[in-house]
From TrEMBL:
This is CheW protein. Residues 2-142 form the CheW-like domain. It comes from Thermoanaerobacter wiegelii Rt8.B1. One of its GO terms (cellular component) is cytosol. PANTHER family: CHEMOTAXIS PROTEIN CHEW, CHEMOTAXIS SENSOR HISTIDINE KINASE-RELATED. It holds the Pfam family CheW. InterPro entries: CheW (IPR039315), CheW-like_dom_sf (IPR036061), CheW-lke_dom (IPR002545). Gene3D superfamilies: CheA-289, Domain 4, SH3 Domains. GO terms for biological process: chemotaxis; signal transduction.
Amino acid sequence: MANQIVVFKLNNEDFCVDINQVIEIIRLQTIVKVPDAPSFVEGITNLRGTVIPIVDLKKRFNLPLSEKNDNNRIIVVNVTNRPVGFIVDSVTEVLHVDDSSIQEAPGIIKGIGKEYITSIINLNDRLIINLDLHKVLTEKEKKEIEEM
């Protein structure tokens, strides 16, 4: 059975998310800072009349930050029945992958992000970390974002 994934980059590393989690992918747009927001929350933006929180995935994963540019995208996902945008360096492709390419995340990775790393996709000597964006935020963090 083929699975469809959206592949994106964070600091030249490949990550992906199941396409069924994605509401839409948009260009980086004006983000308004919110006082006292959690450190990984970049701010809020207006998406066709709906105000949505924007999370910087690099900040959330404690990765080195880089300047924003025209390649940056916001992947919009429904988190706790509310759209949340996740900033990534770029969205590179949408792929169909066979079940045979999907491997359980090795123990070393499970310790780091066991909540949100669902598997590793092995495609032609290329490893892609498969994330569950619904689980990237803890329940406490989801509540903080809801209360913003």
